[in-house]
Every structure is written in structure tokens, then in C-alpha cells.
Amino acid sequence: MTKRVQTFLSQSEAKAFDKQHKHKLQFNITKYDQTVVRGKQQYADLEFVKKRAKNIKYKAIENLDRYLVEFETNFTANGGKVIWANDDKEALQEILKIVKAKKAKTAVKAKSMATEEIHLNEFLAEHGVRSVETDLGEFIQQLDGEPPYHIVTPAMHKSKDDVAKLFADKLGTDINLTAQELTLVAREKLRHEYVQADIGFSGANFILPDIGGIAVTENEGNARLSTSFPKTHIVVVGIEKMLTGFQDLAMFWPLLATYGTGQKVTVYNTVMTGPRKENEQDGPEEMYVILLDNGRSKLLADEVKREALYCIRCGACLNACPVYKNIGGHTYGTTYSGPIGSVITPHYKGMEEFSHLSFASSLCGNCTEVCPVRINLHNLLLYNRHESVQKGLTSMSEKTAWSLWRRAMLNRKTMERGGAGMKNMAMKVLFRNSWGKHRSMLHFAPKSFHERWMEMHPEK
Amino acid sequence: MSRNVSSKELMLTNIRNALINKSKQPFPNLEGTEQVYSREEESLEVLFAQELKAVSGQFVFCETGAELVEILKEVVSIRELKHALCPEPWIQELLEKNGFSDFLKDGAVTGMDAGIMACDALIARTGSILISSRLASGRTLPVYPPVNIVIATTEQLVYDIQDGFDLLRKKYEGTIPSMINLATGPSRTADIEKTLVLGAHGPREVFVFLLDQTS
């Protein structure tokens, strides 16, 4: 068992039995569930939309090379610059070049999981750039020195009182501030940052090849501000965020809002196609889009698991997952948590280190049920398990146990050799560790069904 | 630069190799023009007003420019707004002719209480305002001042986002604006305990004045 698996198991256990943690998570997810019902009411035929959305993502991913080139051509024609980054190091080095060329000292950053993935903030700090998270949830997490807990709701695990205490400690505000007042503190603090920052960073929810643009969805307006004031705008985006064109947004914006936050449409949906044009008032002088692979093409190579790249990062599968609801976001030890994280992380970061996440599932299928682009998430977890077994990543004791189990099951004589006592003993020996200490062991009846049947029908 | 070219080639090669095995289209026979959204029987004006209100925006229907001026004066006085920017020429002219000269200032967007602006389209189904950086208000004015006032005309009102995109396409044919934004109500957050707070970073209040073009 690797150290990572041990940590995962011990943290899972700690979180699953932490009542306070569970209470906060339940509170948040219950509210989410209530609003999603309202968001869905806008649809007359939601299933049709989900199917169409999956077809569109299929087309975008299946022709990814062509669309990426088309995007580059059009975005360059708009005056933007495209950077191709095969991994996190390449992305960071390219960012460093821009930072140095601009002699940048400060940056404002809109919420972005791709920048979390490459650990941008730490890197910028090492190179003397102060990078400020501007999304309220991310701002809270940055103050606390923690990574986001959830891909849509970064501070989901903190109560209002936790945030008030954090602000009091770090910013010297009153410990009794309300949610309204705390938001105002962040608002006032960040207003000044947008105006003076050298660089604005953002991610992107979608890439639009036909017009050479990217799209960003948010509620707070911090991404709008972060991409309007600074002279340089840098976008870091995973290549799988591709759509087939601008017109797809009319369907994907409401769909993302419905499943992300239960809104009909998110407050700010912004398309950016390049730096400020000559006949425009304001906006950045330069815009860069960093196209990040970082393991995605490895997942792409598997034609069955490929559909995990259709994900639009709405977070619905996290909120629906009984495992996530018990162990919480940080326990996964990955940038992307929940079912989608368990599916993609082993491919992005290595099956050896992360295959255990695919086993940490009850396979209840709720993730698949709620996915707006109908990714067969729980099936993909099974495929991951299969791959991990094929690669021989399971422990020797488990391999032995299953091989003995198989031998017994394939032959009635072996299966019924010895009584229930022997079978109970064998179970204990074989599955002692893997069965789980909170689950009671199987208990065999004194006689098997077959034995009783034979007794009742002696003539046969 | 040469390194970058090879990064591009490397990525594209990886992707092309990965895509040698095609996957099946998920829903091959899914074609149709079904009505995917639940459509209310209301007129576009009523629908827009309802939807904007549902996202905490404020809607004002004006039959004439004079009516618009009158109601705007009330808003300015009740909200105690001191300065606003209004770079859109036709709106500026209307307001300056009607006693707003002292209220409308030149100056940095950061010092303004309100931004007054035009839009490219209004979306009735969602209560949204579609704008672009090509408008005189640019990128910062719609989102920095605490109050956002949009003046639109009835011919700009369309049913869905798709229809708004069509208007944009016609208007800016050939040269796409550097930014296009669909804004739906005031800025909001629910990042602290899912408590809804308006005015997270963008405007706390959004007004839409819809000017009847038919009269």
C-alpha cells in the first residue's frame, strides 16, 4: 500500500466520522439540490438537451486537433497569442517569460481549476509576483492557505463563522461580521487590486474555434474586472474545453448554470476574442491563451474513457456522490475531486499513484445520473479498476484471495468442501484487510442452498 | 519561438495519435428542432420584466424619452448618485438636453457612482443584457461602478440567447468585438454558507430602461 493510499484511508476515516464537517457539507449540498430543481424548470425537454450537449462535446473532442488549429488561426488573427503547453512545467515557463517581459509585480486571478492544476500561485510567489485570488471563495481559501475544496464552491466546508474568524485573524475585521459584511470586506479590498494589477489571469469554461475566442462563466464580476483593467490577460485552459463554435454557447451557458448553481443562466458569461481593438474604449493590450495538455492526450488515447474529457466542470457529480459527501474534497488529495476527479486523475497523474480513487466508490451511478453531458462516470470508474488490475497494481494478498475464490467457485466439490465454519474461516483469512473493519463479515449458513435442495429432493 | 513550434507539433502529434481509434457518436439519430425550453405565453416585454425581477434587476418601461428622463431623475435622487459616465452619444445627448449635465462627468470609471449605457440586445427568456466591448461603454464601465443603468429599445428585445447572437452577428459582421458579455442581474455570490449576497465585485443594482421604439 503506497503512502498516498494510507493517507487517503486515514483521512477518509477521520472526515467520515467528523460530525461538524458532515453537517456543513450537508447544509451546502442540500441548498444546492433545492436550487437545481428550480434551474431545471426552464427546460421542456432536458434529456434532449443533455444528449445534444454530449453529441457536441463528442464532435469537439473527436476532432480536437483540427479545432485547436482553427482556434489558433482565428485567435491570432484577432491579435491574440497562443501558447501550446504539453505539461505544467512548460505552461509555467511560458508564463514566467511574459512576467519577466512585462516586469510584472502583481496579478489578479479569476477562479480557474487549470491554474490550480499547474500550481500557478506558488510559482508566481517564487518569482516575486503577488497573485491575488479574486473569486470570494478562492479569496477565502487563499487567506487560509488551503486549496479549493470543491471545483465550483471552493470554501464549501467553511461555515460563516469559520470565515468571520479567518477574516478577523488575517484582516483584523470584527469576528461577528455577517455574510453580507464579509463579502463587502473582500469587495473593497479587491477593487483596488484590479485597477493596479499588471496581469490578469483567468481560466476558461469553453474554447470557441470558429471565432478564435474563449468563454468564462462567473457570478461575481471578478473575472470581468480581472480581464478588463490589467494590460495583459493570460488564459490557462485545458484543451478539452473545446466546443464546435460560438453558437454552442446558447445551449451550454444555461446547461452549466443549471447544474453548477441551479440558475437559469450565470450572472456573467463572457466571450473574449483577443486584446482591445483599435475602435474600442478599453481592455488589455495583450491577450495570451495557454492551451494545456498535461495528461489529457493520454486519456484521449483511450476511445472508451475519452468521454471523461466531455466534462464541463459543473460539479454536479461531486454534490451527488455519497463518497464525496462523506470524505469531502480535500481527502482526495487531487486538484479535481469527486467522481470526475477519480476518473481523470489516474490518467493525468499516473495509475500507480491514483488508481485507489476508482475503487473508493459504491458504483451507485448517481454521478452518471446527474451529469449534464451524460458521461458514464461510474462505468469509467469500473474501466479504471479493470486497467489497474491489468497493470498488476493490486496487492498480492488480494490477487491470492481472488484466485482462490475463483478456484472454489468454479468447482462445486471444492466449494462445498468443509462446512460453514471452514468457509467463515477462509473468508476471514482471505479478505480480513480488504473487507473493511466497519462492515461485518459474511456469515455462511450451516448448509448451502445446494445441499438443502439435494436433501429435499433426494430422488434427483 | 522555435521551442514553441515544437511544443505545438508535439501536442498535435499526441492528439492525432490518440484519435486514430475513433469512438462512436453517443446519440447518432438525435436530430430535431423541438422546443427545448418551457415557453411562457407572455409577450417578450412582460417575460423580460419578470425574468429580470427574478434575478433582482429592476425594469422600467418607458413610452417616451421624456418618461425615461423623469424616472431616471427619480432613481438618481433616491439613490443619491453623484456622478455617472455615459459615453453612448445618443443617450448622452438625450440626458444632457434634459438637465443631467452636472451629473454626467468626464473622468475615471473608478470614481463613478453609476454607468449609463446602451446594449446590443436584451434576452427575454433569461432577463439578460447582451453587450460588447464595441459599445462606447467598453469593458470596465458595465462592471465597476456600483450601479449599472442600461437603456435599450424594444427592437433590441429578443426571445433567447441564440437570437441575441444573431443580432450581434448582423451588427458586427466581419469584425468581432474583443469582448462579448451576457449579464443577468446584479453581481452576486453565495460563497459563504450559500447565503445570497448582491454586489460581490460588480454592480449591486442593475436597471434596464426599455424605450418603446414604436411610439
Task: Characterize the structure shown.
The complex is a heterodimer of chains A (460) and B (215). By secondary structure, chain A is an alpha/beta fold. Chain A has 3 domains: 1-42 and 303-394, Fumarate Reductase Iron-sulfur Protein, Chain B, domain 2, CATH 1.10.1060; 46-51 and 58-294, Rossmann fold (3-Layer(aba) Sandwich); 396-456, no CATH class. Chain A is 53% helix and 10% strand. Chain A is built from 24 helices and 9 strands. Chain A has helices at residues 3-16, 19-40, 46-62, 64-77, 88-102, 113-117, 120-126, 136-143, 160-171, 179-196, 222-226, 249-261, 296-300, 316-320, 322-327, 338-349, 351-354, 356-359, 366-370, 377-390, 396-409, 412-416, 420-431, 449-456; strands spanning 81-85, 106-109, 130-133, 199-202, 206-208, 213-218, 232-238, 268-272, 286-292. In chain A, β5 (206-208) and β6 form a beta hairpin. In chain A, α2 runs antiparallel to α12 and α16 runs parallel beside α20 (377-390). Chain B has 215 residues and is an alpha/beta fold. The longest helix of chain B has 17 residues, at 2-18. The mean pLDDT of chain B is 94. Classes of the chains: A alpha/beta (460), B alpha/beta (215). At the A-B interface, α2, α3, α4, β1 and α8 of A face α1, α5, β8 and β9 of B. β8 (268-272) of chain A pairs antiparallel with β8 (179-183) of chain B.
